[in-house]
Amino acid sequence: MFKFLAASACVAGASSAVADIAEVASMFEDEGLQLLQVAAKKHNHTHQDFSRGDGYCAFWGDTHTVAAYNGHPPDPQQFGLYTLANSKDGRFKSQLYQCAAWHTVNVGWINAMAYDIDGTRVVILPPIMSQISNNGPVYIRANDVEYSSAQLPFTIPGTSIEIRAHKPPYGFHIVTEGFDARVEMMTNRHPYCYVDTGLRLKPDNIPDTDENSFCVKGPAATPIADDAMDADWSDSLFSNADHERICDYCQAYNQRSGKANVRALKCAKPPPVPPPPPAKKECEDNECSWTHAQQLCSSLQGDDVLYNDCLFDFCLECDDDAAIQFVAEDEDENPDPICVAGAPECAPEEVCNNVVKMNTLTVTQNNLGGVGPDEGA
Q1: DSSP characters for 201-261?
Q2: Per-domain residue ranges for the chain?
């Protein structure tokens, strides 16, 4: 009997509970549906955003992927000049140069960074091997002006780009609207140097999924240029002199290895810039009169540099005005001596060349108007 009553009570209670649930469900049916729809929409939106990341890409050490723009690619260990990432709108470009790490041919680390930020070029270079210190100040060049990270913080003149101290003196951020690059250059007297770096762009401004970059393709990225004979280095954000300094460091580091295959590693860089052709050859190539060029520039023959510059300016386009203007500018900056009006005799060159030279730097006698230590009137 007790069991029956208990069971009846349970059934009654359950029926009541079901009724209550049904009633509550009925009361909130519309609201619940809306909430589920919002949740589903939010979930789908979040999933779509996370598939491309939150605008942050980062690498550290030798070289480990921390975050990327297309999933989480394996660690990029290849050597040479690569794109880190470029913004979709073209405002921001970033590149890196990577060399061998830990004296092995299978591991790399970043040794230099370069950025183009709204047309402003910022370059971070490794230290000169003989001057390396433990996490010392970092070389920074912005719009061809050299700085040290010890001078931070500052804003690059004429821009809104700030370089902010982060882990002074070796760590800093390069920041402007829509762009934040983190640079930490680790150095040691061991000696070695490598860069931990991060790049944050707006999520809707990250590169497309087919970009040839570390942030998108990781180890599948190919170099911007290599040591092939027909390699095109024109897209490099580093100058030829920058590449020389980078390779000087990397090769000096490799030469300290006890492994022959590491010492044999080559550092890809642009070919040397050919010297400008002699002015006469330029005239011949452009079918300009070499004799006429010499006549136009004859007044500058006393200065080999100016004379050749004048000849070259004419020979570029057979342009008389180019040479005439060059000579006129030199005469304005370095006027010849002239005679005073009405002078009976005047030979400026003879006077200037034969003038008695006086040296007032070495004092042999000074009596300070009769009150000094020396005798004399």
Answers
A1: E-GGGSPPTT--SHHHHGGG---SS-SSTT---TT-SS-HHHHHHHHHHHHHHHTT-S-HH
A2: 23-52, 56-263, 279-337
Mapped onto helix, strand or coil, the DSSP state of residue 37 is helix
pLDDT in tens, 59-117: 999 999 999 999 999 999 999 999 999 999 999 999 999 999 999 999 999 999 999 99
Mean pLDDT of the region 324-330:
93
The proportion of the chain whose per-residue pLDDT surpasses 70, expressed as a percent, equals: 75
Question: In angstroms, rounded to a whole number, what is the distance separating the alpha carbons of residues 1 and 7?
Answer: 10
Per-residue tokens: 102: 């830990």
More confident position, 295 or 353: 295
Q: Give per-residue burial for 326-349: e unless 16+ CB within 10 Å, then b.
A: bbeebeeeeeeeeeeeeeeeeeee
- Give the relative orientation of helices 320-333 and 304-317 as an angle to the nearest 10 degrees: 150
Is the Cβ–Cβ distance between 188 and 134 less than 8 Å? Answer: yes
Q: How far is 370 from 44, CA to CA, in rounded Å?
A: 100
Query: Which helix (DSSP H) or strand (DSSP E) does residue 320 occupy?
Result: helix 320-333
